[in-house]
Design goal:
By secondary structure, the chain is α+β, with helices and mostly antiparallel strands. It contains 13 helices and 23 strands. The chain folds into four domains: 2-92, Rossmann fold; 124-179, 2-Layer Sandwich (Dna Ligase, domain 1), CATH 3.30.1490.20; 190-311, D-amino Acid Aminotransferase, Chain A, domain 1; 324-416, Phosphoribosylglycinamide synthetase, C-terminal domain (Glycinamide Ribonucleotide Synthetase, Chain A, domain 4). It has helices at residues 10-22, 50-59, 70-74, 77-83, 97-100, 102-111, 125-132, 158-170, 238-258, 291-295, 303-311, 385-396, 412-416; strands spanning 2-7, 27-32, 41-42, 64-67, 88-89, 119-122, 139-143, 152-155, 181-185, 190-199, 202-205, 210-211, 214-216, 220-223, 228-231, 264-274, 277-284, 324-332, 355-358, 361-364, 367-370, 374-382, 404-405. Strands 12, 15, 18, 19, 22 and 23 form a six-stranded antiparallel sheet that branches. It has a five-stranded parallel sheet with strand order 3-2-1-4-5, with helices on both faces. Its cofactor is Mn(2+); Mg(2+).
Length: 417
């Protein structure tokens, strides 16, 4: 079997590593990939160049294409492949709007009674400011479109909220992504991620994971694309898991069918366990990053078997081990703002018994070096979260690069709760 993975980061590297472990793929291609993905053949095609990707898949008789990033989905890569009869796992551009537009996601949740925060959507700065003055602080302001995980700001004061609205709507901080904004109620509680493999009305929920969005220890600093993750999440109980499936995943898959845009691919729900019950923070239309890196090591069923079965509309049992995984992002200094590039990374060959997924690296003068905001993701596996946590932090200390930083508190609070 020949498999093409679209994307360039840690999520895609984790998918490649899973394909290698499954031993079903005779050839694994990654477009465009990065220099740390030694297990795959890199293909120099950008994620949004859908016609070129389809031509490559056709010419090389690719048996399955797996889409990593949201930008590919919103560029219509699945639509292009479907027109040519090429097997690809992911939602169409129309279905991916569940991630591509916060306002559309909110509309769907409101229409189909899926629990979420109260909100308003705005394109006009005066109307947005007037709405803010009727709301409690803190409050959450989101760019409507895709902003690489950085388009969400939690504002503690009215002054901060008004300045954020101005930055997004007037200054277009996120270009067209912030031509419309969603202002929503701040949800308090325990955050968690739930993903599912979906094909129309069939869904196979994955185990729970927990993402850490803020840049620094103690959940301080700016929102990022994710600075660490772990699975399972001891503060989310079996009853919460069932509630999340029954109140969020199942009704949204049915809602998409009802709207005439059935969903096939990975449906991701970012959730909050509040005093009033489970509520949705956001939906994504693809594997979460870095949830993928901590979940795929726990998946025992072959990934290609799951995806090809679902593409044929067939149900399939998905088996997960009961191990615990803890993963840490090593980011370039300055991230999520302007960050350092080009610094060499030493010590990677000294790491033992952990998974290393390359997120933003490049080979410069035969040395793996910084080439992105989030650079590496290191995952430890153990019988308990504490075992996994100790292992990953012990190994991360061996990485030598003056321009990398990481959080030291991933999974610490939940273990001690």
């Amino acid at each position: 079997m020949k498999v093409l993975v679209i994307g360039r980061g840690g999520r895609e590297h984790a998918i490649v590593k899973k394909l290698v472990r499954d031993r079903k793929a005779s050839q694994i291609f990654c477009a465009p990939g990065n220099d740390g993905m030694s297990e795959a053949t890199l293909v120099p095609i950008e994620e949004t160049h859908v016609a070129e990707l389809a031509a490559f898949a056709q010419e090389n008789q690719i048996d399955l294409t797996i889409v990593g990033p949201e930008v590919s989905l919103m560029a219509g890569v699945v639509n292009e492949f479907n027109q040519l009869g090429l097997p690809i796992f992911g939602p169409t551009k129309e279905a991916a709007l569940i991630e591509g537009s916060k306002a559309f996601a909110k509309y769907m949740m409101q229409k189909y009674d899926i629990p979420t925060a109260a909100y308003g959507e705005f394109t006009n700065i005066e109307e947005a400011t007037a709405y803010l003055r009727t709301q409690k602080m803190p409050i959450v302001i989101k760019a409507d479109g895709l902003a690489a995980g950085k388009g969400v700001v939690i504002c503690q004061t009215l002054e901060e909220a008004e300045a954020t609205v101005k930055e997004m709507l007037l200054d277009r901080k996120f270009d067209d992504a912030s031509s419309k904004i969603v202002i929503e109620e701040f949800l308090d509680g325990e955050e968690f991620s739930l993903m599912a493999f979906v094909s129309n009305e069939i869904y196979k929920a994955m185990p729970i994971a927990r993402d850490y969005k803020r840049a620094h220890d103690g959940d301080l600093g700016l929102n990022t694309g994710g600075m660490g993750n772990h699975s399972p999440h001891p503060l989310i109980f079996d009853t919460d898991y069932e509630d999340a499936i029954n109140q969020v995943i199942e009704p949204m898959t049915k809602a998409m069918i009802e709207e005439g845009i059935p969903f096939t691919g990975i449906l991701y729900a970012g959730l909050m366990k509040t005093a009033e019950g489970i509520k949705v923070i956001e939906f994504n239309a693809r594997f979460g990053d870095p949830e993928t890196e901590v979940l795929l090591p726990r998946l025992e069923t072959d990934l290609t078997d799951i995806m090809l079965s679902l593409l044929e509309g067939k149900d399939i049992e998905c088996h997960w081990n009961d191990k615990a995984t803890v993963g840490i992002v090593l980011a370039a200094k300055g991230y999520p703002g302007a960050y350092v590039k080009g610094t060499p990374i030493k010590g990677l060959d000294e790491l033992v018994d952990v998974d290393v997924c390359h997120m933003g690296t490049k080979l410069i003068d035969n040395q793996i070096s910084l080439n992105g905001g989030r650079v590496l993701f290191v995952v430890g596996t153990g019988d308990t979260l504490e075992d996994a946590r100790q292992k990953v932090y012990q190994e991360v200390k061996k990485i030598d690069c003056k321009d990398l930083f990481y959080r030291t508190d991933i999974a610490k609070k939940v273990i001690n709760s």
